[in-house]
Every structure is written in structure tokens, then in C-alpha cells.
């Protein structure tokens, strides 16, 4: 006659307690990690403006297109990126998610420039693709307390100081480096035709 076992053995009870304790430790570590991330996000407002500005730039670079532009009724050189180093200014054309109130086109000129006097980076747009005069720029985003911005452009596996002028071999990325309140920041953007 076989004896039927009723209840749990001591070993089974100890294993069940150990698993329960392990699950409790893992759950408390998860909750503790979530609370520390939440606390960091609420205590570091300095990182948020930089992140917001770089995300706005990324959206603009993601939809870059090649279009002929003109100013004062004269055609401009047709490039993917128009870099003007003396003004620390980069221009390009992109599809815009912003409402196209000033002209009805989703294609807009984009301008990233540095205001030396105000120590700020400016992201502006204009619907004047074929401007009879100077294009009218609208400020979309700005980042204040910025110093020493530098730009570089990804070509052939290296970062260079000038964008490519060949339409068939456009740059694969743009990198913006700057100081904000003395802290260094780098924003790197992969251009749509440079992604693999």
C-alpha cells in the first residue's frame, strides 16, 4: 500500500519562500529605479531645453529635400545643405510639420543660426522658396546660454568642416557641438539618404 503525501515538505516550503523573496527584491529594485529616473527628470531642467532643441532639429533633418531656391528673383546654388561659416548659419529645405499658414506649401526653408550677441541658437523657417526679396523667417525654436557652436558634416567615413557640394554624394550626417552654461553638448543627426 502506497502512502500519499499530504501537504508540503520543508524543502518545498523553503524554495517557495526563497522565490517569493527574490520576486519581492526584483519588484522593489524596479520601483526604486523608476522613482530615481522620475526624480532625475524633475530635478534636471537644464537637460530638457537641449534635448527639446535637438529633437526639433532632428525632425527638420529627417525630411530634408533637394529644391531650387531663389532670392531677389535670382536662383541660388542648388545644394542639399547651404553652410555659411562667417554667419555660423546652416540652411536647407525640408517638409514641414508646422502649419503652412504663410504660403500653403509644406516645403519650407530651414535655417539654423547662432546669435552671438544673444548667445543663442535659433531654428527658423520660411515658406519663401522663391523669394522676390529677402525671405521672411519665423522663429520656431531657440536655445539660450550657448557658446562656441561648431558644425561638422559626415562624408566618406569622416567628419569634415564643410558639407559636400555634390548632389550625387550628399553628406551622411550633421554634427553640432556647443557649450551651454559651460557644459559641452553634442547633437548628431543622420540625414535621410545617409541611413543604412
Distance between the termini: 72 Å
Q: What's the total number of strands? A: 12
Global mean pLDDT: 82
Low-confidence stretches: none
Secondary structural class: alpha+beta
Please give the count of helices: 2
What coarse outline follows from CA principal-axis ratios? elongated
- The radius of gyration computed from the alpha-carbon positions, rounded to a whole number of angstroms, is 27 Å
Q: Beta fraction of the residues?
A: 25-35%
Give helix % range.
Answer: 25-40%
Biggest sheet record? 6 strands, antiparallel
Summarize the structure.
By secondary structure, this protein is of the alpha+beta class.
What does this structure look like?
Strands 1, 4, 5, 6, 7 and 8 form a six-stranded antiparallel β-sheet that branches. The protein has a four-stranded antiparallel β-sheet with strand order 10-9-11-12, covered by helices on one side. The model has no long low-confidence stretch (mean pLDDT 82). It has helices at residues 10-43, 47-62; strands spanning 64-65, 70-71, 74-75, 82-84, 89-95, 107-115, 120-126, 138-144, 146-155, 158-160, 173-180, 183-190. The radius of gyration is 27 Å and the shape is elongated. The chain is built from two helices and twelve strands; from the N terminus they run H-H-E-E-E-E-E-E-E-E-E-E-E-E. The chain is of the alpha+beta class and 196 residues long.
